[in-house]
Design goal:
- By secondary structure, the chain is α/β, with parallel strands linked by helices.
- Among the domains are: 229 residues, 3-Layer(aba) Sandwich (Rossmann fold), CATH 3.40.50; 205 residues, P-loop containing nucleotide triphosphate hydrolases (Rossmann fold, 3-Layer(aba) Sandwich).
- The chain contains 30 helices and 17 strands.
- The strands form 3 sheets. It has a 9-stranded mixed beta sheet with strand order 2-1-11-3-10-9-4-8-5. A 6-stranded parallel beta sheet has the order 12-17-16-13-15-14, with helices on both faces.
- α24 links the parallel β14 and β15.
- α12 packs parallel to α13.
- It is globular, with a radius of gyration of 28 Å.
- The N terminus and C terminus are likely disordered.
- The structure holds adenosine-5'-triphosphate (ATP).
- Adenosine-5'-triphosphate (ATP) binds next to α13.
- This is ATP-dependent RNA helicase ROK1.
- It is found in: Nucleus, Nucleolus.
Length: 720
């Protein structure tokens, strides 16, 4: 039965039009996962793809002869002429087809590369100091050497604009997934696994980063800022897995953790492992989720055994067993044998310092460190742990990748200084010099343009609850212009508020629609097992509405959710970008993001309104279609830097946990901020009972009580 029919309490509901159905993110696949493209590029890309198809017929025989793991084949071409373009000047801006570097049919000239990258809004920048960029040995021809030298001499006199231009790169983009094998020679099994996922068109972030990470030029350290749901996971996993396949081929005797992927939550880490397992099948590469009690580091016990991972998640009880083992017994636990370890920061830091010595154990074999949601990993909350992990990776050829949809310039500075300090501490240099590049897709720190944002003034907490109940009853919602159908997520500011809101709503779904089992709450106070079960049931469609905290704001991919409700406003613009990015994944249209705000929230709403405004501008369309009008933006107050900081750390003060329980009232007028921890249903029952008792005592009072009961029937969830 249909969600909407089940959830509505009205029999007069009109069936939804098929047009609006097909716009729901939960129905079907996105036609094209790319967010930015132009007709001109479409044409250019299909011409290029056409050329390649012809070429591939000619080279097919060659490629069939290429052994599976021939990574050093002479017909391999450099992917990104990073250093060639590093010294671009004003003249380069006007580059013509004549200047283009084109040595065979298959290559793209610089004009084409620029056209494609610009139309997909991909910007690649060399983040190193200019002197560093320019001392790199680069080209093979004399003329290029001369050009380079003259640029070096010019460097000190470059204006800021010229320096920016000099840092700008135009690497060759990936036009289709087949090129992964035909051009970048990734392992054939890995290429098959990618093909099996059924993706046809690479997303912008894949189009831009895969050539950089798989090309012949020395692998760079990479900062990537790309929209939510744009396929960053595949972008970092393919190169990591391919590098390990190569490594196994060239160093068959070296076993241990070669790659680390760090993510801020267990949910995200576990999702990355699931994605990874699809890609590693049959490649000989192992990917494992870090578990409590695992031994991972090199703490001097070189002769430690190696534990054979079975690639299955262990149950909670096994975790606890391992964790509770006395130190002596723990020393006998074999060191984990896995090529890729996916972990949250604290869990790995605990494992690395498990022997309680002053120094942490090291991870000497790790060559790739991926930080997913890097800005939060390097935020004060996780910073120390993340930097400890980074520094425990002691191989001089370590490459780092920092990935997120939002990244402040402070993170870029921290990355640069950490790369430098780590090498100084090591006292060793990498075997080949390499760049630190930044790739940005779209506008940095903006929300995806393919969702509808609704910023709703609800005045009070009661108003928010009323609005949310309307969303749960689509017939009532027709009075407003918001039509949000399950499955969707509801975000609150704190765990107690999530728990209370869940209790409030759990009987709002009629029994014939599955009742309270359709709505659940997920937060970090639940056990790992409970959290996994809820995630599984939400993915399976058994849970339709999930009330949660910012635990699920980042990274988690529920392919077909129709929307997100910010029941409590997010603590920062970045959190807004991530929360709403749980819908509209892989280019899907029709996702809705509803944000309620009350009068207490007014000081904090401007940054959210700005994000919505920019996202609507990115989307294009008529001025009148915009949900954020200029007068509103002008009217909303700006927040001071300190208040922003405070908001980021604590959220809206009036909504903090201690004032939220049933009994508490601080007497300062914050009573209205409470969400009762009893469900609306339970309170309606109680009210009914109270009314009945009164009725037996006093007929007159009973009449009045029955009036109240009917009030409570509709609004029983607000205040006791
Ligand atoms: N080329 C593609 N075509 C279609 N779908 C894709 C493609 N690449 C990835 N996807 C799908 O897009 C969804 C989002 O991918 P992913 O979780 O990697 O996004 P993300 O960029 O990491 O998002 P977030 O910033 O929220 O973490 C996934 O369901 C993934 O399977």
């Amino acid at each position: 039965m249909e969600f909407k029919l089940l959830l509505t309490r009205s029999t007069k509901l009109k069936p939804a039009s098929s047009a609006s159905d097909s716009r729901l993110p939960s129905t079907g696949k996105a036609a094209n996962p790319q967010l930015f493209r132009t007709a001109e590029t479409d044409k250019l890309e299909s011409t290029k793809n056409g050329k390649k198809r012809k070429r591939s017929a000619a080279v097919q025989q060659d490629e069939e002869d290429v052994p599976d793991l021939d990574f050093f084949s002479s017909n391999k071409r450099p992917a990104a002429s990073v250093t060639e373009t590093a010294v671009a000047t004003e003249d380069d801006e006007k580059v013509s087809a004549q200047d283009a570097v084109s040595d065979d049919d298959d290559s793209m000239d610089e004009v084409e590369r620029r056209t494609i990258l610009n139309s997909h809004k991909i910007k690649v920048t060399d983040m190193r100091d200019l002197e560093e960029i320019q001392v790199q040995p680069t080209s093979t021809t004399d003329s290029k050497k001369k050009k380079k030298k003259s640029k070096k001499e010019e460097a000190p006199t470059l204006s800021k604009k010229e320096q920016k231009r000099a840092r700008r790169l135009f690497p060759e983009p990936l036009l289709n997934f087949k090129e992964l094998r035909s051009k970048y020679k990734i392992s054939s099994r890995l290429a098959e696994n990618v093909a099996e996922q059924g993706f046809t068109v690479p997303t912008e972030v894949q189009l831009g980063t895969l050539p950089l990470l798989l090309g012949e030029s020395s692998e760079p350290d990479l900062l990537v800022v790309a929209p939510t749901g744009s396929g960053k996971t595949l972008s970092f996993l393919i190169p990591v897995i391919n590098k390990i396949v190569r490594h196994h081929h060239s160093n068959p005797d070296e076993h241990g953790i070669l790659s680390l992927v760090v993510a801020p939550t267990r949910e995200l880490a576990s999702q990355i492992v699931n994605e990874g397992r699809k890609l590693v099948a049959g490649t000989g590469v192992k990917i494992t989720l870090m578990r409590k009690g695992m031994r991972v580091g090199d703490d001097g016990d070189a002769g430690a055994n190696v534990l054979e991972e079975n690639n299955e998640e262990s149950s909670g009880s096994e975790d606890e067993e391992a964790e509770n083992k006395p130190a002596k017994e723990r020393a006998n636990i074999p060191v984990t044998k896995s090529d890729i370890l996916v972990t949250t920061p604290l869990m790995l830091v605990n494992a690395l310092s498990a022997n309680r010595t002053a120094t942490m154990a090291t991870l000497p074999l790790v060559r790739s460190l991926v930080m997913d949601e890097a800005d939060v990993l390097l935020d004060p909350l996780f910073r120390e742990q993340t930097l400890d992990i980074w520094k425990s990776c002691s191989h001089p050829d370590l490459r780092v990748g920092l990935w997120s949809a939002t990244m402040g310039s402070n993170i870029e500075d921290l990355t640069k200084s950490t790369i430098r300090e780590r090498l100084e501490d090591l006292g060793q240099k990498p075997s080949e010099p390499h760049a630190l590049l930044r790739l940005v897709v779209g506008l940095k720190d903006s929300a995806i343009p393919n969702i509808d944002h609704k910023l709703v003034y609800a005045a009070t907490e009661q108003g928010k609850l009323m609005g949310l109940r309307q969303l749960l009853r689509p017939a009532a919602a027709s009075a407003s212009d918001i039509r949000l159908r399950p499955p969707f997520l509801i975000f609150t500011q704190t765990i107690p508020r999530a728990v209370a809101l869940h209790s409030e709503l759990k009987y709002d779904i009629p029994a014939e629609a599955g009742g309270s089992s359709r709505i659940a709450v997920l937060h970090s106070d639940l056990s790992d097992g409970q959290r996994s079960d809820i995630m599984r049931d939400f993915r399976k469609g058994e849970i339709w509405i999930l009330v949660t905290t910012d635990l699920l704001a980042r990274g988690v991919d529920f392919r077909g959710i129709n929307g997100v409700v910010n029941y409590d406003i997010p603590n920062s613009a970045a959190v807004y970008v991530h929360r709403v990015g749980r819908t509209g994944r892989a280019g899907r249209e029709g996702g809705i993001a509803v944000t309620y705000y009350t009068k207490e929230d007014i000081p904090y709403v401007k940054s959210i309104a700005n994000i919505i405004d920019v996202s609507e501008k990115l989307r294009g369309g008529e001025e009148g279609d915009k949900s954020i009008q200029k007068w509103l933006l002008d009217a909303l107050p700006n927040l001071s830097k300190n208040s922003k900081k405070d908001m980021k750390r604590h959220g809206v003060k009036a909504r903090q946990a201690p004032r939220l329980t049933d009994k508490e009232d601080d007497g300062k007028g914050t009573r209205g901020m409470r969400i009762s921890t009893k469900s609306g249903f339970e309170r309606r029952m109680e009210n009914n009972k109270r009314g009945a008792i009164e009725a037996s005592r006093n007929r007159k009072a009973a009449a009045a009580a029955s009036g109240n009961v009917s009030d409570a029937g509709s609004w029983g969830g607000l205040d006791d």
